[in-house]
Amino acid sequence: MWSFLERLLDSSTFSPHGICLLWEPELIWLHVISDALIAASYFSIPFALAILVSKRRDFQFGWMAWPFAAFILACGLTHVFSIYTLWVPIYGLEGLLKALTAVASIFTAVLLWPLIPKILAIPSEAQLREAHVALAEEGRQRQRSEFLLERFREAEANESKIRQAQKMEAVGQLTGGIAHDFNNILTVITGTIDILSDAVTHNRQLVEITGLIRDAADRGASLTRHLLAFARKQPLQPSDVDVNALMVDTIELLRPTIGDHVDIDFCPTPNLPRALVDSNQLVTAIINLALNARDAMPKGGRLRIETGTAELKPSDVQGHDGLAAGDYVAIALIDNGEGIAEADLAKVFEPFFITKDVGKGTGLGLSMVYGFVKQSNGHVVLDSEVGRGTRVMLYLPRAAMASPAVVPERRQPDVRGARETVLVVEDDRLVRSYVLTQIESLGYTTRSANNGSEALAVLDSGAPVELLFTDVIMPGAMNGRDLATEAQKRRPGLRVLFTSGYTENAIDQDGKLAQGILFLAKPYSRAQLARMLRVALREEEAVVAQEPAE
């Protein structure tokens, strides 16, 4: 082996390559310059590859640059030796270098050919542009899909609100009808208890029994009032209310009611606009909410009452039938009690739904608040989380006027009649019989009718009638308001007193008593009936009046 290398590297027997060119200067320099340029170009390629790979480490086939650079470097060296052998015949060493170059070229080719399909799979510039356009279009389609999905979610949320409102409306219709019939029954019970209690004053045991019956009737009347409030069928008397002043008075009532274990913090907003709302019903709603907060804090806690202004935007009122966007007076009640489970939040305003233990509440407090606020053209929102407490927001419409309404003082009228004739129109036979008895016992003459047609027949007969005392809701095409209109056409100046368990907008406008309406809510006591009869028959007293049921 060593002798082979010696013979291969021995150049003493060889002549330089220049002899073959006859030492022609033109030929010599042509080969020198050409091989030098080729060698310089070959040597620059590995440096370019090294810079590319070092700068672009993410290049997918960067590892292939190193064997390719070694092959190119060997090619450049062969051209350097071609120049050197023009004068020095070291053909053996040149042959070894060419053999090394051959090995490097074979190795590079073996590595390169399997890469051809992968290299061809790299997208061209045109393909990249097409992919960019397709990606942009996909992005636009995704944005449209997200927009449509958001619209769908909004529509689904609005549909859920509408379904809930329809369900509440249906339940309201049912509860309103039940309350109407129940009020007719309670009217008879309440009135006859007054008669019975007067008759048994000498018997202590019977007096106690009549007291129990009266208490039960009062509880029934309270129940129907709550049902009517939820059904939004109670007559309201909205007025210009200073909410801050009303809250101060209400909190004074609340402190002994909810106990010392609950601290009340009141945070009023100065210069608060006045609200257009029924002040008595608002106080009742606040008390109901405060009692709920107290029950949610059996070990004590804090109730915070805040007042302020709020703006409901169109997006806030979407899906809430009858609610208008605009400025409202807001009342917030915030407690740190037990809170309400998320699964129950959608049902808290439904009548008779209750999260308390059996026997601890009727389940009508929140439903009454809901019905009252909705009937007042407001809005109510309840947020709660178990273990963190509850926040109830009431949004009440602002009053158009800035000054409080002035209520004139009235003297108490006499409760006995002067044989005036009262035409009683009542479709319920039991109630009609009771009312006739009571009115006659108060010193009046009575006539009766079962419906509007019969009442008009009495008036057309020429019989004397000073007062029309009519139920509002009656079977047939003519309700109490229609009857009053027709009756006053026949007898101008005829006084009218309305009564009902609920009005169903027959004599009110959206639950608010219209100007000049006299209304006695069922159930009523004998004393309330006597007072309203005198108010209705005395011209100087016959202004807007309403006698609430006790």
Q: Key features?
A:
alpha/beta, 15 strands, 16 helices, 550 residues, six-stranded parallel sheet, disordered C terminus, five-stranded mixed sheet
User: What can be said about the biggest beta sheet?
Assistant: 6 strands, parallel
Radius of gyration: 49 Å
- Read across the widest sheet, the strand sequence of neighbours is 9-8-10-11-14-15
* Ends distance: 129 Å
How much helix is in the residues? 40-55%
Tally of strands:
15
Count helical runs: 16
Structural class per helix/strand content?
Answer: alpha/beta
The chain-level mean pLDDT equals 79
Q: What amount of the residues lies in strands?
A: 5-15%
Give the overall shape, derived from the CA principal axes.
Answer: rod-shaped
Low-pLDDT windows of residues: 403-414, 540-550
Overview of this protein structure:
The chain has 550 residues and is of the alpha/beta class. Helix content is 52%, strand content 15%. It has 16 helices and 15 strands. The protein has helices at residues 2-9, 17-20, 25-55, 65-84, 91-112, 116-121, 125-199, 204-231, 243-258, 279-295, 314-317, 365-375, 429-441, 452-460, 480-490, 526-537; strands at 239-241, 262-267, 275-277, 301-312, 326-335, 379-385, 389-397, 421-425, 445-449, 467-471, 495-500, 508-509, 512-513, 518-521, 545-547. Strands 9-8-10-11-14-15 form a 6-stranded parallel β-sheet, sandwiched between helices. It has a 5-stranded mixed β-sheet with strand order 2-4-5-7-6. Strands 1-3 form a two-stranded antiparallel sheet. Helix 7 runs antiparallel to helix 8 (204-231) and helix 8 crosses helix 12. The model is unreliable at 403-414 and 540-550 (pLDDT under 50).
